[in-house]
Write a structure and sequence with these properties.
The chain is of the alpha/beta class. It contains 16 helices and nine strands.
Length: about 350
């Protein structure tokens, strides 16, 4: 709890202190007034006390979500989710310098090797977006890439060096630019594992250029909804069900696989594959399903077939996690009801699938 308080914005912290002082002062005032008024006038004091109790209860709820409640949401637009990133991600990110005034921040428990100290060690780089990054997973050691690294180190000590260079919100264009920088800088990269969240395709549709800008138009303006935690969270929960940009998001993504965006993405994937091969690196692709709607009517089932077909045609190994994760859907594989990213259990299942599917001789 104390750690959470440290990550509250200064404006919120001092504003809440002032509010608590005001609430306490009002309570003292109402009690004093109650003693000095006639019995007939006390009904107004009692009404004031009733309102005071309601405000105290709401303040308690607000403080719980500000200080105790600690999780994320899919789009990370709420103040609760932003605080989670400030607490569990930002203090632990590492810097990778790629050139003069160029570099990235990445989340891992070790630095990317900058030279090849052991010729028998295979250097593997994981790239991708929030699924690979571990959105909603507090400990980096609980992510599938870190679990995989630990498992392989036990089975094959010193044989693999695995680094996760993913980041939330990035796309395949970003991955291509990063790999170009890594190869140009002669970083040791023997294998690239691109982990796909099915919405990676959105960057290949014109709608994507303005989609997240449009979402920001739904951000709250009123100070109570904007600068609190509980009320801000409730605001976005309501908007999630009333705004089509939120409600129909996965329908948009599904449509992209039936048109030009999928064709454009395949061309970019082929370019990335050629880039890796031209520098002596191997490209593997791992496909995550959308975990929140797995089941008999899973709308993206045929999309997984499209990924397998691309892999066969491009001579790229594609590991599909649908069969691994779907049998466990009933046990809960997402961070929470409002965050469709994989939780620690999903990461553990994915790590084992990667070990047997990509790293078994």
């Amino acid at each position: 709890m104390l750690k959470s308080i440290l990550f509250l914005p200064d404006g919120y912290f001092y504003g809440m202190l002032a509010w608590l002082a005001a609430v306490a002062a009002v309570a003292v005032l109402l009690v004093k007034l109650r003693r000095g008024v006639s019995a007939g006038s006390r009904k107004w004091i009692h009404a004031g006390l009733s309102l005071w109790i309601v405000l105290v209860a709401l303040t308690g709820v607000e403080l719980y979500f500000a200080v105790v409640y600690d999780t994320t949401d899919s789009f990370s637009m709420t103040n609760v989710s932003k605080k989670w990133f400030a607490m569990h991600v930002e203090p632990h990110q590492r810097g990778l310098k790629l050139g003069p005034r160029r570099g990235i921040r990445y989340r891992d428990d070790h630095d990317l090797p900058v030279d090849r100290s052991d010729e028998d060690c295979e250097h593997v780089v994981f790239v991708g977006d929030s699924f690979t990054f571990g959105h909603g997973v507090k400990r980096t050691g609980d992510r599938f890439s870190n679990r995989l690294a630990d498992s392989l180190e036990i089975d094959h000590p010193g044989r693999y060096s695995i680094t996760n260079l993913s980041n939330a919100g990035v796309d395949l264009h970003w991955v291509e630019r990063l790999l170009e920088e890594l190869f140009a800088g002669e970083f040791p990269v023997d294998r690239v594992v691109y982990v796909v969240c099915l919405n990676d395709i959105e960057t290949f549709h014109p709608r994507h250029k303005t989609y997240y800008v449009d979402l920001q138009q739904h951000a709250p303006r009123f100070v109570l909804w904007k600068h609190t935690y509980f009320f801000n969270l409730m605001y976005f929960r309501l908007r999630q069900f009333t705004v089509s940009d939120f409600r129909d998001y996965y329908q948009f993504v599904r449509e992209y696989y039936d048109g030009d965006p999928w064709q454009a993405m395949q061309r970019k994937l082929d370019q990335v594959n050629r880039l890796c091969r031209s520098h002596g690196a191997k490209l593997d692709v791992v496909v995550f399903p959308f975990l929140h709607n797995l089941g008999p009517d899973y709308p993206f089932r045929d999309v997984h077939g499209q990924w397998a077909e691309w892999g066969t045609g491009s001579d790229v190994r594609v590991l599909d996690l649908l069969e691994t994760l779907e049998p466990h859907a009933a046990t809960g594989l997402t961070v929470n009801r409002y965050d469709a990213h994989p939780n620690e259990r999903a990461h553990a299942l994915a790590a084992e699938a990667l070990r047997t599917g990509l790293f078994t001789d």
